[in-house]
Specification:
The protein is mostly helical and 524 residues long. It contains 26 helices and no strands. The longest helix has 19 residues. The chain starts with a helix and ends in a 5-residue tail after the last helix. It comes from Hondaea fermentalgiana. InterPro entries: TPR-like_helical_dom_sf, TPR_rpt.
Length: 524
């Protein structure tokens, strides 16, 4: 029963049955029996699904002690599995160093049991790659994914479904780096194998890959192609799992996001309301998935000019996230950020600061998994609000604190935060400070993202900064680099490209772009 409840997402009921089973096992055997370790691990796995990471970790560590005492540390698959579970819990908490240590320990045991070239080792290599990806170490991630792919091809054959899975993982990392065409090629190869393996109208692996392909097209502003692949994925999911399934709701949400990007707000709202109906039917109206869809609905209301409805919907989403995830969860911080952003846009700076200060307080009480980066991002957003109020001293203080926090951070979002700080310093006329932030952002974005729109964004900012400082030659070089990259990555109709081309025109005519840069401050 516990396993069935877990599959159905009825986690509280699953816990009750797992706890009852554990009591019976302890009564019939003893506290140090391997079956007790299995029971504790079952409990912990449900706690993970409830985002109760610390409790889950404690249980997994208890299970490890029992397994080590019962069967020894080095040559038992159960010990390796427990190290794997501990690593997952650590990763979810943001303790990537410990996660990698435990994954490598599990890998070492599996290699001794199964050998270096075995499917068990390839699975762990993928897990190690994913932790590197979370740390922004994309080349390291690709190396481990590709090693795993090599093992999978060698042990299972080139056309096995697991090869499709591995290709999808490689594609995901390439997509994060902005290597869209490489990502697309890997996803298409994955799709071909998945169709061969399971048939054209199966199942969820095919539908998921179709969605990934759609996401690549979406990222390149190829909305027609994105909709085509999302609609095909939706058709498969409806056929396989019925029309009232949460996977169907996920795809409806994705289609709505494409319509939103096309400013087709009425159609976006129709799909979002359909998704919300399914999620409320399956999960109830107080579930985190429902909150995410409400966020999307709020964004549509905002674009349609319904500010009060948008704010009310964002607030409802925040209430659900607080209730289901707890005040310190990153999704709660995300909702606070959204409310702060819409409040800033409408001049309600007091409300914006209230939300951002709450988010900051939670991060300081219980540091998030992305640590210094999340703190720096929130500090920079507070600085933006103070800057908009004309409180330049307060804005500068938060800028400096954000910079200090970034100094100890690592990861792909460093560049984005530095970009924001650069625009803030530029708005205050602090050229050298702004230049330093933009140059550091450019270096980090190139390192972590490669050929990516984030790099083009920083190039654009550097161009505008130099233009307003009277150095049109340097400005022209940066703006042309930004234009080339945006044309390649985003296509000729992207609004970001339009801004760059307007700035190029101003540069060639000797005009200032100061106001363009300032107008972008709140949209970064």
């Amino acid at each position: 029963m516990a396993g069935l409840f877990r599959k159905q997402g009825r986690f509280d009921e699953a816990l009750v049955y797992y706890e009852k089973a554990l009591v019976i096992i302890k009564e019939k055997l003893c506290d140090s029996h391997p079956a007790v370790a299995r029971g504790i691990s079952n409990l912990a796995s449900v706690l993970l699904l409830q985002n109760r990471y610390s409790e889950a970790l404690g249980h997994f560590e208890d299970a490890l002690l029992i397994r080590n005492a019962a069967v020894g540390e080095d040559l038992h698959p159960g010990v390796a599995s427990t190290f794997n579970n501990i690593a997952i819990a650590c990763s979810l908490q943001g303790d990537y160093e410990k996660a990698l240590k435990c994954f490598h320990k599990a890998l070492s045991i599996k290699k001794r049991i199964f050998g270096d070239r075995h499917p068990e080792t390839s699975n762990l290599l993928h897990s190690i790659a994913e932790v590197h990806c979370l740390q922004g170490e994309f080349e390291e991630a690709l190396m481990h994914h590709e090693k795993a792919l090599s093992i999978t091809k060698e042990t299972l054959g080139n056309r096995d479904p697991e090869v499709a899975v591995a290709l999808g993982k490689i594609a995901k990392v390439c997509a994060i780096q902005g290597r869209s065409e490489e990502a697309l090629a890997s996803y298409e190869a994955s799709l071909t194998i998945a169709r061969e393996a399971v048939g054209d109208r199966d199942v969820l692996s095919v539908a998921k890959t179709l969605e990934n392909i759609a996401a690549i097209h979406y990222s390149r502003n190829r909305y027609k192609e994105a909709l085509h692949f999302y609609e095909e994925a939706l058709s498969i999911r409806k056929e396989v799992s019925g029309g009232r399934n949460v996977l169907v709701a996920d795809t409806l949400n994705n289609i709505a996001i494409v319509f939103y990007a096309q400013q087709r707000y009425k159609e976006a709202m129709e799909y979002l309301e359909a998704a919300l109906s399914i999620e409320e039917e399956v999960w109830g109206d107080r579930h985190a998935k429902v909150a995410n869809t409400l966020d999307n609905i709020a964004a549509v209301h905002e674009q349609q000019g319904s500010f009060e409805v948008a704010m009310e919907t964002f607030e409802k989403s925040l209430s659900i996230k607080r209730e289901t995830l707890g005040d310190h969860h990153p999704d709660v911080a995300e909702s606070l950020d959204k409310i702060a952003a819409i409040s800033t846009d409408h001049g309600n700076f007091e409300k914006a600061l209230e939300c951002l200060q709450e988010s900051l307080s939670h991060q300081r009480e219980a540091p998030r998994c992305d640590g210094h980066l999340a703190l720096a991002a929130t500090l920079s957003k507070i600085a933006v609000v103070y800057n908009a109020q004309g409180c330049l001293e307060e804005a500068s203080n938060f800028c400096e604190e954000a910079l200090a926090s970034i100094h100890d951070a690592r990861g792909a979002s460093q560049g984005s935060t530095l970009d924001t700080l650069g625009v803030l310093y530029a708005s205050q006329g602090r050229f050298e400070r702004a230049l330093d932030c933009f140059q550091r952002a450019l270096t980090l974005n190139k390192k972590y993202l490669g050929n990516h729109a984030g790099v083009a964004n920083t190039l654009y900012h550097l161009g505008v900064l130099h233009l307003d400082h009277g150095d049109s030659k340097t400005a022209l070089s940066y703006l042309r680099d930004a234009e080339r990259m945006q044309l390649e990555l985003l296509g000729p109709n992207d609004p970001e490209l339009g801004l760059t081309q307007n700035s190029l025109d101003a540069c060639q005519k000797g005009k200032s772009c100061y106001q363009i840069l300032m107008d972008r401050l709140f949209g970064i």
